[in-house]
Amino acid sequence: MDSSHFSPVSFMRPAVDAELADFVRRRRAEVLEIGEELAPVLDALEAMLAGGKRIRPAFCYWGWRGAGGPETRAIHVAAAALEFLQACALIHDDVIDNSDTRRGLPATHRRLAVLHASSGWTGDSAAFGQGAAVLLGDLCLAWCDAMYQSSGLSEAALRAGRPAFDLMRSEVMAGQYLDLVEQAREADTVDAALRVMTYKSAKYTIERPLHLGAALAGRHDELAPVYTAYGIPLGIAFQLRDDVLGVFGDPDETGKPAGDDLREGKRTVLVAETLRRAPAAGAAEFRRHLGDPDLSAETVEWMRDLITDSGALAACERRIDRYVAQATDALQTDAVADDARSALADLIVAATARKH
Amino acid sequence: MDSSHFSPVSFMRPAVDAELADFVRRRRAEVLEIGEELAPVLDALEAMLAGGKRIRPAFCYWGWRGAGGPETRAIHVAAAALEFLQACALIHDDVIDNSDTRRGLPATHRRLAVLHASSGWTGDSAAFGQGAAVLLGDLCLAWCDAMYQSSGLSEAALRAGRPAFDLMRSEVMAGQYLDLVEQAREADTVDAALRVMTYKSAKYTIERPLHLGAALAGRHDELAPVYTAYGIPLGIAFQLRDDVLGVFGDPDETGKPAGDDLREGKRTVLVAETLRRAPAAGAAEFRRHLGDPDLSAETVEWMRDLITDSGALAACERRIDRYVAQATDALQTDAVADDARSALADLIVAATARKH
Fold it and tell me: Which Pfam families does this one have (chains A, B) (predicted)?
């Protein structure tokens, strides 16, 4: 492999994909025995899994390798299990936000609403889709831990990984709830946005998967502080980059309409910085538009200009740079094995680089 | 204890209650550290847990004791974990059905909608409540397996229990999905109702908890057929009794308005029998009313009369008797330890007796 093209995420992808496919194939028969009507639900699950970026498995894997864990199938399985947690989080998130699309395709509950409508069933198609998606998310959550537990890692390893595995699940749900509360309170401070980001993104996406990998390899206590010092700032930088893309990103790449985060009214750091930096009249008008699902393209353009002209975008980019520097510094330690250190450094770039 | 008043469910209750309280207390601190805003969500969880009947823990426990398992704290913990699965199922079920009440109290999503409204937050209170309830159900599901895994049973026991534990979760979600599909298809046959009942109730409530108990005690293969022969008919009889109560039960005891199942349009065996046995004109009118949320008290009365006069109620009672006899017969074996056999016999009565 040409090292200039080595990607620490896509390196993992074939193994994770294969393990997920294998797990679902074995469970499919079991589920279809309950009822053949479940086939479209499993298809929706496979479609959701296919689109996953394998970010959490990658961090879990490199957390393990950084702790000196060997290349084994078992770690691929345990890491791949995290994709089921992510599938649950996304399926339920789309129900909660009533989002129509995910990665440019119909959201799971929309897909299952279409199944209802095209089958000519009675009742409300949207309600059917939502109900079915809640149940499918539940199934994903149950399969996450079934896959983890059946990974083939030793009982001692699985037990050592449990605290991180359990915290990861509590924290993402708590973080999502805080996000709901902050939206409802119309919180618009940088601190509020950073707290939600810390739990919903930084810990869930990076820190805990790394902790899990280290714990599975039996070196949690030694490596957890290093992985936290790397993972939290990187996770926040990653989310900040995502927030910038949510406003300025190319719809073809993000899979979401341009300016979608503004229509949704997401309380991001970018928004908080804009409200803090813009002139009062502009900030008031910006606040009025934020969260309006019917925002025109012109208004989106006006809002983008205010984000740029107020200096909020530049401030956000400086913040990303600062967090990236912190994450990079955290890797300056011999505690993490060399190849993993290099992969984790590459992951900083992959997670936070500006997209063109 | 006066044996004439011995109840194999309430016998379990103090131990299960204590373990649940202990588990939640330890996690509460962890969750509140993420954000104090989570306190009302944990309160909602505790309210839901407090109302649970501990039926699944009781069957798990007696499945263990029937397999010769000793009286230990660890089995109480593992059995109690099933209450978190049930809490998830009920919280999500109420979201899916958009039910206002559960056991005579506001459903969890309604309770959290009230929190939103009384806090003066912006946005739609109902949507907030539903979103928060979806997340709380997810937390329950994660805690179910966290509690199971931390029960203190041996690794070998936990591993042996895994297949039943995993199947139980897949089956209840699949069963609930089939229920949605059958409602949407307006299925009105006895067979359709029996299939949903088998997965959503009989396996989930009785058979799999018994299998889990036997597996944890290391005797799954020997006892599973006995527990299936007992659990499936008893589970169906239990659900049939519940269906009768859902139409004829005292609102003070069921915690639901009189005739609520008729307003909800539940496709029960009782309904299927009525549609099959009533004169065509009556059946057609019955079908028209079924699922109308605004059914008047008079129409509910008319529907009840048709259920009785058509012979559907008597047929349902005969069916209950038949299933009870099957469950009773299944216990005629030395494979199950004596005290557990006696408790399981008592559970037949407790689960299926007519309420006055």
Answer: polyprenyl_synt
For the segment B324-344, what is each residue's pLDDT rounded down to a tens digit? 999 999 999 999 999 999 999
Query: How much of chain B exceeds pLDDT 90, in percent?
Result: 84
Q: Is A177 in contact with B132 (Cβ distance < 8 A)?
A: yes
Contact B232, B202 (CB under 8 A): yes
User: Considering CB atoms only, which of B128, B138, B199 is closest to A34?
Assistant: B199
Which phi and psi (to 5°) does residue B120 adopt? 70, 25
Q: Check: CB of residue B197 under 8 Å from CB of residue B286.
A: no
Q: Is A108 in CB contact (< 8 Å) with chain B?
A: no
Would you call B239 helix, strand, or coil by DSSP?
Answer: helix
Q: Which of A93-97, B8-12, B55-59 comes out lowest in average pLDDT?
A: B8-12
**The token pair that represents B162 in the structure block:** 């895994």
Q: Is A344's pLDDT higher than 90?
A: yes
User: What single DSSP character describes residue A293?
Assistant: T
- Domain A1-153: state its class: mainly alpha
Residue A128: its chain B contacts at CB < 8 A?
180, 184
| The domains spanning B1-153 and B155-356 adopt the same CATH topology | yes
- Under DSSP, the state recorded for B353 is P
Please report the DSSP string for B3-65 in residue order: GGG--TTTTTHHHHHHHHHHHHHHHHHHHHHH-GGGHHHHHHHHHHHHT---HHHHHHHHHHH
Report ipTM (2 d.p.): 0.94
Kindly list the residues from chain A whose CB atom is less than 8 angstroms away from the CB atom of residue B136: 173, 177
The pLDDT tens digits of the residues spanning A138-164 come to: 999 999 999 999 999 999 999 999 999
| Whether A238 contacts A352, CB under 8 Å | yes
Question: Under an 8 A CB cutoff, do A128 and B184 touch?
Answer: yes
Average pLDDT, chain B: 93
Distance from C-alpha of B81 to C-alpha of B84, rounded to nearest angstrom:
6
Asked if A38's CB is within 8 angstroms of B177's CB, the reply is: yes
What topology does CATH give the domain A154-356? Farnesyl Diphosphate Synthase (1.10.600)
A-chain CB neighbours of B127 within 8 Å are 98
A161 reaches B (C-beta below 8 A): no
pLDDT number for residue B4: 47
Domain ranges within chain A, ordered by starting residue: 1-153, 154-356
Using CA coordinates, name the residue in chain B closest to A39.
B174
Whether residue B2 has pLDDT greater than 70? no
Express each pLDDT in B278-300 by its tens digit.
Answer: 999 999 999 999 989 899 999 99
Round to whole Å and give the CA distance between A227 and A231: 6
Please give the CATH topology (third level) of the domain spanning B155-356: Farnesyl Diphosphate Synthase (1.10.600)
Q: Do B121 and A167 touch (CB under 8 A)?
A: no
Cβ-based contacts of B193 with chain A (< 8 Å): none
Compute the 3-state secondary structure of chain A and give helix, strand, coil in percent, each to the nearest 5: 75, 0, 20
